[in-house]
Amino acid sequence: MNLNVTWAEAWIREGARVIAEHRAELNTLDRAIGDGDHGENMDRGFQAVVLKLDALPAGSTPGDVLKLVATTLISTVGGASGPLFGTAFLKAAVAVGTVGDLDAAAVAALIAAARDGIVLRGKAVVGDKTMIDAWTPAVDAAAAARNADASVVTLLQQAADAAAAGAVSTEPLVAHKGRASYLGERAIGHRDPGAESTTLLLRAAAETAARA
Q1: CATH code for residues 5-211
Q2: What letter does residue 187 receive in the DSSP assignment?
Q3: Which of 54, 113, 130, 207 could form a disulfide with 124 if both were Cys (CB 3.0 to 4.6 A apart)?
Q4: Domain limits of the chain?
Q5: What are the respective helix, strand and coil percentages of the chain, to the nearest 5?
């Protein structure tokens, strides 16, 4: 089974729903090590995306959806989250191109390109206590699933599970990037909010794929 534009739209709508549902939780995580507005910013950005999805032209591709997400997040989300997630979706759009159906290889490439876009923009590496600690395990899990000829649904599920574990792994870390880096050891014990929102989005991708 491949995934088409119907899945891409469903993914983003479900992602917007879960971000809204967890907005307060994301704000609480961010309040401990940042400005306390990660959930608010992400919710605002994805609600703006949903409004634009309603006007998506007929014949659009998954790449068109990803590009729409990218440009909207960059223009509406404050702080670091807009540029980082926006670049992730932009690079993902480039990776999938104009094809109408995404197989497991294409979805693995989508996830890898998203991670690489964040690295390009934010210069973080695994262990810096950022969303990269969720994205990189997701990339590795997706690649392993692809190499094992897993279905696209299984690939996304394993990527989401890996992201969730990666988000948890940020709790004992000292931050080396962003506002949290100013806290030193006081950041220990707190989960990175960007890693958590990454998990929510990848989980939404997997769940909508399972229903496709």
Answers
A1: 1.25.40.340
A2: G
A3: 130
A4: 5-211
A5: 75, 0, 25
